[in-house]
Amino acid sequence: MFSIGHSMTNSAGTADALSVERAVFPAGFKGMWHSHPAAQLIYPGRGVMMLETEAGCWVVPPHQACWLPSAENHRVQSSAGFEMLSVYCRGSVLSRLPAAPGVVAVSGLLRECIFALETAGPRSRRVSLAILFAQEVSVDSAPRLFVPQLHSSRLRKIEAALSREPGNDKPLSQWANELGATSRTLARAFEREANMTFTAYRKQARLRAALVRLAEGEPITNIALDLSFGSASNFIRMFRQATGFTPGKYFQNRSRQKS
């Protein structure tokens, strides 16, 4: 069994600790790139955040969290503002936690564990909470809306354009003409850098934008047409394929987690 103390070090000089910090960020917030010596579970208790790592970008609503190993470079942002709880993990507890970053489904049990860790308590209670926390954190337990980071100059231009205008319906052949490449060259570059086709990458970028707008209360039909899904029914179908839920059920799940 590992031990948890209120500080980073215990009497034996071992850094075994879980600590929780809460912060509120305004609409339009875009953080700087940074990292922490401790591993971190980032939980948006209210609102929807986007979390970027060097691998790519996750959209994280309040019934999910994002796990980051120690020293993982990242930044957070949100168009509508959000409240964030960060659980910093150090010491032997890390042996029970994931080694790779990813999205974590926040069960009611994990949520209450995070809240309980905010308050000071007896050492034995914090040991029990730490064990429970480690058991509940799994990066394989939640569907992901993940947009991979692109690296080559040509693909970065496409990435920037789709970030500004996710509904951009320009075919790959037109991008190739504008960027001085062939369609085949760009298609291979997407497979190599994103591990997906251009069409799949663009769909992920659109779904990322859609989730943020859904969280802000925008009507589904407006989102579907503006982001080039063709129709509300087509958007709902693609959203269900990506998340396992319709948009309505997805945010009902969020509301249950918050209650």
UniProtKB/TrEMBL annotation:
Q: Which GO terms describe its molecular function?
A: DNA-binding transcription factor activity; sequence-specific DNA binding
Report whether Mitochondrion shows up as a keyword of the record. Answer: no
Sorted alphabetically, which InterPro entries does this protein's record hold? Answer: AraC-bd (IPR003313), Homeodomain-like_sf (IPR009057), HTH_AraC (IPR018060), RmlC-like_jellyroll (IPR014710), RmlC_Cupin_sf (IPR011051)
SUPFAM superfamilies under this entry?
Answer: Homeodomain-like, RmlC-like cupins
- Which keywords has UniProt assigned to this entry? DNA-binding, Repressor, Transcription, Transcription regulation
Q: Where is the HTH araC/xylS-type domain?
A: 152-253
Alphabetized CDD domains for the sequence = cupin_NimR-like_N (cd06124)
- The identity of this protein, by name, is HTH araC/xylS-type domain-containing protein
